[in-house]
Amino acid sequence: MTTSQERARLAQSDNEIFLALKGEEARQRAGLELIPSENYAFPEVLTLLGSAFTNKYSEGYPGRRYYGGQDYTDRIETLARDRAKALFRAEHANVQPLSGSPMNQAVYLGLLEPGDTILAMDLSHGGHLTHGAPVSHMGRLFNFVRYKTDPTNGAIDFDHLRAVARETKPRLVVCGYSSYPRDYDYADFKRVADEVGALTMADVSHIGGLIAANVMRNPLDAGFDVMTTTTHKSLRGPRGGLILCKAEFARKIDASVFPGLQGGPHMNQVAAAAVTFRLAAMPAFRDYAEQVLANAKALAAALMERQVKLVTGGTDNHLLVIDTVASFGIDGAVAQEALDRVGLTTNKQVIPDDPNPPMRPSGLRLGTPAATARGMGHKEMAEIAEIIAAALNAKGDAATETALAARTHKLTSRFPVDGL
Ligand SMILES: *Cc1c(COP(=O)(O)O)cnc(C)c1O
What are the binding positions for (6S)-5,6,7,8-tetrahydrofolate in this chain (predicted)? Predict the structure, then answer.
């Protein structure tokens, strides 16, 4: 957040960028954000991201820095680590990863050797790019092998997982997802990993806030070795990554983040993460997280009432995936564009074993964290489901889309964004 004086100065120094900022703010206010990985950061986070902490170099860790002048940076990083440990019941926390991708890279590079085998979820079944996509550098450095979901019910098939693990002997089993709409019992993963002597890592980037609020299961409670999460998705913090691990891996993880992978941490981000972990421990955040889940269930139910086909037939978390080909006879890219025209921001999504290419996949992914942060509830989810179904049935009809866009704007105008 900036004062009006600061904004006037920006407008004078660089009006093009100032106008783009105003445009983006207006877009975020008027549109409805349904991408499950996006959210509105807490206003305190926006304040700290634009603060003097951005000026400071703090290579090293609290009490062991390379440069002087670390009184306040040591204080915020210690608070951030202690709060993260308490929030997630972890033995050790590293708050320096610049974002989710370097966070996962730091774990792989810190605990394994290049060429080692990592067992992770198939990308089309909900895994993330950083779980060894062939186009990623990690996919070239490590030998990633895959498990899939059960085609009959969309859940993880643990017999299949065990068979792949026995055959491939991974050194690390990774679970976690970007587009899997279910929860799982982490003890099932742990059992398989223990059988083959592998380490366990849960990448809970999407649901970190829901785990912090204790409305979804915490993998660390099931004895996982490492848990990683972004801080900017359901947690509503700054863009960044957080690594939590058992004490026995603390030195390896810290050395892997710095000096292994990164230089100076972004201390404005660390300060914002510290306040995020404090806010996420409050009762109000638990209410928020419960509503995120209730809204996802309500949105799923309202869509299914309109004969919309959802991957796995529903949701246990904050996200859902529509099979747009089966439901509306259009691919996910066409669906995403149609919803953009009525003010709903979503993203096209591959579905399990998708026959269609990633830029024209068969699905569309939706989530409720951002809409819930605006204060929306059950009634609004029903209205959103109606707009989605009408927009995707309209097949591009301009008059219908204009009327639907007006409905979206009427809805968003009643729910202002905190801090915008
Ligand atoms: C978003 C996400 C990441 C990567 O985060 P970035 O900050 O975009 O690099 C990693 N893993 C999972 C499961 C994610 O959903």
Answer: 123, 127-129, 248
The atom of ligand 1 lying closest to the CA of 240 is: 7
Spatial neighbors of 274 by CB under 8 A, at least 6 apart, are 76, 77, 79, 80, 83, 95
> At residue 155, does pLDDT exceed 90?
no
Q: What is the pTM of this model?
A: 0.96
pLDDT of residue 154: 78
Categorize the per-residue pLDDT at 3 as very low, low, confident or very high, splitting at 50, 70 and 90: confident
Active-site annotation, residues: 57, 59, 203, 230, 233, 239
CATH value at residue 362: 3.90.1150.10
Beta strands in 160-257 (DSSP E): 172-176, 199-203, 226-230, 241-245
pLDDT in tens, 336-352: 999 999 999 999 999 98
Q: How far is the CA of 232 from the centre of ligand 1 (A)?
A: 10
Whether 244 and 131 map to the same domain: the answer is yes
Cα radius of gyration (the chain): 22
Domain membership of residue 344 (yes or no) is yes
Q: Are 333 and 344 in contact (CB under 8 A)?
A: no
Spatial distance between the Cα atoms of 125 and 122, rounded to a whole number of angstroms: 5
Which residue(s) pair with 344 in the sheet? 32
Q: Is the CB of 99 under 6 A from ligand 1?
A: yes
Of 210, 175, 408, 193, whose CA–CA distance to 294 is shortest? Answer: 210
| Atom 5 of ligand 1: nearest residue by CA position | 100
pLDDT tens per residue, range 55-91 = 999 999 999 999 999 999 999 999 999 999 999 999 9
Residue after which a domain boundary falls, among 229, 246, 280: 280
Q: Ligand 1: does its nearest atom lie under 6 Å from the Cβ of 101?
A: yes
- Residues 328, 398: Cα–Cα separation, whole Å: 18
